[in-house]
Amino acid sequence: MTFKPQHFPDHLFFITGSLVGWLPLLARPEFARLMLDSLDWHRQHKRWSLYAYVIMPTHFHLIIKPAEDQTISANLQSLGSFTAHAILKQLRAGQMTVELDYFASHRQQDATEKHQVWQPLQAKNVYSPEFLREKVEYIHDNPIAKKWALVENRADYRYSSACYYDRDEGPLVAVDDVREWLG
Questions:
Q1: CA–CA dist 152, 136 (Å, integer)
Q2: In a domain, 155, yes or no
Q3: How many CB atoms are located within 10 Å of the residue 123 CB?
Q4: Measured between alpha carbons, how far is 63 from 66 in angstroms, rounded to an integer?
Q5: For residue range 17-51, what is the model confidence (pLDDT) as tens digits?
Q6: 116: domain range?
Q7: Is the whole-model pTM more than 0.90?
Q8: Residue-wise pLDDT tens digits, 134-161
Q9: 30 in any annotated domain
Q10: Residue 149: exposed, middle, or buried by beta-carbon count in 10 A (0-12, 13-18, 19+)?
Q11: Residue 174: closest CA among 86, 70, 182, 165
């Protein structure tokens, strides 16, 4: 289930998605890879431009701009649905019954579904270059935040676009250059 934000066709959006109960499933490389593959698929199929991302153990953040023929709500629905189904498929294949039972017991949004993987995905309109700069820094600083301390240098975190901006290295998923929006 996703929150339906107001769509502004010429704006970027800051997206946040959190697993139900903040389950640290995305700390496992195979689940982080599912997220990365989805980000790349949406970008390659021109559903959005992807400017920044980080996949954390329990959540993710993105900055995207929907394609002209897409709304932010459609992008959130597609991302949430695709990744939830991929995660559940991976859990079944790995016979991870504890996690499957957890997602089944925590479904709240849609009683017709057997599982709920995501809390409602959130999108905030990026309304200024200052807000954009703040959110890009927030995304890239997430892995070095005191709460997480996943790496010492944010550009070393594999599941982030920080290496592109900090070192001019290719991230695992290609990004569009956000600096064009910063002037």
A1: 18
A2: yes
A3: 23
A4: 10
A5: 999 999 999 999 999 999 999 999 999 999 999 99
A6: 12-182
A7: yes
A8: 999 999 999 999 999 999 999 999 999 9
A9: yes
A10: exposed
A11: 165
Is the sign of the CA dihedral 132, 136, 137, 138 positive or negative? positive
- The domain that holds 70 is classified in CATH as 3.30.70.1290
Q: Is residue 34 part of a domain?
A: yes
Which among 34, 132, 135 has a CA at the least distance from the CA of 87?
34
Q: Rounded to whole angstroms, how far apart are CA atoms 51 and 48? A: 9
CA distance 71 to 132: 19
Each residue's pLDDT tens digit, 72-107: 999 999 999 999 999 999 999 999 999 999 999 887
- Confidence class for position 3, pLDDT limits 50, 70, 90: very low
In a domain, 61, yes or no: yes
Distance CA(127)–CA(162), nearest Å, equals: 22
- 144 φ, ψ (degrees, to nearest 5): -100, 0
Amino acid found at 164: Y
**pLDDT at 107 (0 to 100):** 75
Total number of domains constituting the chain: 1
